[in-house]
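Lay summary

Proteins are chains of building blocks that fold into shapes. Our project writes down both the chain and a compact code for its shape. Here are two examples, one after the other.
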Amino acid sequence: MEETRTIDFFDRTFHLSENNTNIKQECLAGLTTFVSMAYILFVNPSVLGVAGMDKGAVFTATALSAIIGCFLMGILANYPIAIAPGLGDNAFFTYSVVLAMGIPWQKAMAGVFVASVLFTILSFLKVREIVINAIPKDLKYAMAAGIGIFISFVGLQGGGIIVSSKSSLVELGSLTVPTTWITIFGIFLIAILMVKKVPGAIFIGLVATTLLGLLTGLVKMPDHLISMAPSLEPTFGVGIKFLPTMTDPKMWAVVLIFLLVAFFDTAGTLVGLAQEAGLMKDNKMPRIGRALMADSLSMLGGAVMGTTPTSAYVESSAGIAVGGKTGLTAIVTGTLFILSMAFSPLLEVVTTQVTAAALIVVGVLMVSALKDIEWDKFEIALPSFLVAIGIPLTYNISYGIAFGFLTYPILMVAAGRRKEVNVVMWSMFFVFIALLYILNVLPK
């Protein structure tokens, strides 16, 4: 009887039956998403540590901001999308703002806090929602595909299958590297399981790949299993304490960049994931206002605790591919981030070579959105193509989207379809010109 009440509660709260899913499927999806993005708990402290921040405090701030974001996304928006500090934002913070511009991390964190406050206000006023709903469907399909190619590229790099090259930018990695074969094993295993239509194929593949790494000694067992979460004291509230430094004009340029990059990174990712999950209705994402508010509040919380802006994670696509369709998936992911704070040493066994296979396979699923683009109309084909190819080649979701937004209005006018270009798209045309100017003119 108690079990029935529990099932009914989750069904009413997350509308499981309406979305043709169940508790088991959502839990599996949440677990898969967590395993795919758990690397951020170690990568974020490493990147921000270069800027001089305390790695232990950043680890805890990363986990807490992810917990806040995932729970808000699950409860407010009922979407299977996880939130955590974004990789692009932390790299910009460290290498462009702190190291290149010579701004101390404490002062830079004040800029992040101000950008977070503005971000939340824009979400509350539904400005972000209006912009996303105004994006043409073809460009949304291109975003989904571009993100798919991007995460596959990340997976190929993480697995060592693709490496950098001085002569041709990238080239095939060495197949004599043992850890590369962990990724190759994972790709084939997941692919075979998916062809066989085995439920949870991606998660099963991740577990099996991890076990292979442990058995062969290519993945090391952690020295201990349990560790208390490090203190937040070194970073907590630093951004607020350094608000008086915002009198520096250079800091407002930094705020603008954080604001614009975070705005379109999250927007592009949300649309791409919703497209893949089949959640779009009439070219609009239902409850997108709530989803954006969840993202904004988690970004604000992260800025207070001491980490760079949060973002919707493309790795959520792994959970969506497993069958995640509601906010319960995000809740499960957030719960696992809570547990990860106590059992953080165990996360070391999930290496980039392990998660790489899942990212590559999921990328294949997302690229299928290309089939819905009107390729026979060049005024639509070129902007869509530039978005899809621009995201992975620039290694930046915002840049890829910018290519499409800058060419779409011009080509639509040339094709005699000026009336189909709405005010928002023209506004974004000029916003992206400003963004590209700022990013390429400010000191590197």
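And here is the second example, written the same way.
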Amino acid sequence: MSSLPPADQIDPDNLSVESWRLESLIQLNKIRRILLFLALLALVMACFFAKDVLLPIILGLMLALTLSPIVRGAGRLGVPAPLSGILLIVFMGAGMVAGGYAVSGPISTWMQDAPEMGEQLREKFRGLSESVEKVKEASKEVEGLTEEAAASNRVQKVAIQQPGILNSAVSNAASTGTTLAVTLVLALFLLASGDMFRVKLVEVLPSLSEKKRALKIVYGVERAISRYLLTITLINAGLGLAVWALLMLAGLPKPYVWGLVAFVFNYLPFLGAIAGVVLVGIYSVLSFDTLGHAAIAPLLYLAATTLEGQIITPSVLGRRLELNTVSVFITVVFWGWLWGIAGALMAVPFLVIVKVVCDNVESMKTLGYFLGSADMGVKFEESDKAAGSGE
């Protein structure tokens, strides 16, 4: 055991230099943390303002990662990557156009009949609407008093006319169509390029270890994203068919529309099922005479989504998606706030990519551990015990 040197042998100059170095390291670490926080804040702000540019690019990359294993498998059979990429993108584009055309007629009809549908809802919920009307009358009285006060003070009131529902829907549909078109074209170019970008990535990195780690991350991200999105798409398709059949048995008009709604909404964790139940419930109330009969359709929709979310998806995905519920929920809320519905839909695939990168980068493994599920914690403890016994 070493002992401290005598006091007369301690050099005060060296001691002051060491303390100065320690203080400098502490200050540098603080500066690094502040700069990292500012960089993350700047990145979030850039994503918020550059949504129209970044969204189709990210969606195109994810779509290309999802379809890359299929293109690579077709290449082993002798099919060129450009041909298989074109066939896949054309097939997906045709499916989107067919789905949009199938629901465009009923949706446009419902939008035109929105005032009448609102009147029907008020009639069926008369007791609730009466209390709401009382609140409206009170608010109108307050508004009248405010207008009188404004008139007495000679304050001019400018009314801004909001765009109609139909105009907003057309504008949103055009924006969505442009985003999807750019996404499909970008995915086509990426798929047609084959392994060109992987080869360039290997050529750019200097050391062999970095090349291996980069390829491991790329193939890990590709495998995780393709497995997740392809599996979820098949599950959502099965859910859509089940909802279609159940609502058809319940006698709800146009059940195929709600099958497509279930297919699309189920990509949105947590909120998609709730939104589907609410929409089916409103339409069911408008379609049936009694509230008891109208409750059957949303209950069937809820039962189908609950069975899918609690039993089918966990059993099919298993441990392929090792993410905890809290991290998924926070990611969905954050990207939903940042980019709306489109951001919420891409939140889980983005989290999968972050998890794969964290698992393959030593300095980010702590973050990957916190993003993982409970099983990952058990594996971590077992590895620690094994390491302890080895010592």
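What can we say about the second shape? Residues 153-163, 376-391 have pLDDT under 50 and may be disordered.
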